[in-house]
Structures are given as structure tokens and as C-alpha cells.
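Section 5.1 Outputs to date
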Amino acid sequence: MKRLFVVIGLTISLFLISRSTSFAQTSLTPSSPWGTWFIGTVQVPGGSDKWGGFAEVQTRGNSVMRQFFYRELKGGLSYDASPYFTFTLAGGHYATYDYRQLSDGPLNTEKRLWQQLVINQHLSRIKFEQRYRIEQRWFTYRDGSTPFRNRIRYRLNAFVPLNKPTITAKTAFLSLFDEIFINPKGPTFERNRVYAGIGYQVDKHWIVQAGWVNQTNYSPASFEKGVFSPQSAAGKNNILLSLTYRIGQGKNTGSSSKLPSQTD
């Protein structure tokens, strides 16, 4: 029990530090400080054959419930190497628009491929998930340019079931995570994403979640023509709403598919 309280304290401390850092370095857009993310996911949990997969659609608004400017379509295959290790190969198509001129088409599109490892650690009621991801990204901009970029991502996610010892049917839970994005060419600390939310697993198929997510993008420091420009940051708070449907239910009770993780 003492160890459980220590883990809870460390988890809360990590979240508060991440949140305070994010707010301290975030410059919110005055006209619309809050945006909206909608996420819909269909999952196939790994069963006795250990193979699974997912498909997801996501849209984002520059303001609360309006000013759509971004969408994602993605999917992939997963393999449960053990109850604690899951590998994923996935890809997606992404598009960014000017919400004031949607009819003009996207400002840029992106095709993305990634390889991912998820490690699960369960300490009493707290469920930890560490996610390592390597991404390959192909862009197409409106001016015709087609740059290529790599990116590395790491996310630490904690889940705390509220009314049951594990997250099963009719379970309310808390979810906290912090994710960092690194451009290996720099290396440059490119982005930080912090999330805090509450969810409810209705039955073995349906899961709903709602929460707050802050995403902060960082521009590297530069020295040009004798002028030094320090690192700058621009971020935004968002309301996140997600709905997940699981097709079937994996028999591997320790599988990461049992945790209501967001695939984004």
C-alpha cells in the first residue's frame, strides 16, 4: 500500500510539472484560446493469435465545436509479443486547411508511416503505458514542394480505474499522459502534448473519453546575421472528445488492448 501511494504521488507530480511547464511556455491565440479535437476509433484487440489492428478518424477545430481546419485518417496492424509488449505498424493521411477558406482545399497534406513499441507496467490499480514511436513523413504543400521528415515520439500514459481494480465493463477511469516529439535531424525538441481526462468503459465494446489536451510547438533558437533569436513556443488548449468501439475482445488479459489508450 505504501508503494502505491508513492507511485500515485509521482504520477500526480509528473502531470503537474508537465502542465505548469506547458502553460509557462505557451502563447495562446487570443481570438480562440480553446479548440476542439474529435476522435473516433475502431479497434480489433489481439486475441489468441496475438494479431490486432485499428482504424481511426480525427478532426480538429480552431474554436470550440467550430472552425474545422484539420483531419486525420489512419490505421494499422498490431502484434502482442507478450502481455506487456505490443508492436504496431501503421500509416495515415493528414490534411491541414484554412478554416476560413475550406473550399480552396488543404494548405498541405501528409502521408505518414510509423513503427511503434508499447510497454505496459501494472502497479496495483495504476496502469502505466510507455509508447515509443518512429515516424516517416511525406508532405505535399500547396506551392508544390514535397519535403520529407523523420520524427521520434515518446509518451508516458497513466490510467487509474475509479470504481473497480481494473478497467472493464462499467468502469470509470482517469487518464493522464505527457508526450514529447523530437526531430532527429536537429536534434530539436519539436512539440509537447499534455492530456488529462476522464473516461468510461460502457461494456466490452464501447469506451468514451473527454478531457483537456494542450499541444505546444517549439521553434529552435537561431543565430543569423549576428542576431540571436531564442527558442519560441506557441500552444493551444483543446477540449478532446473520443469514442472507441472494439470489435470482439482479446483473450490475452494482460494485453495493451485492454487499456483504453488513444492511438494518436
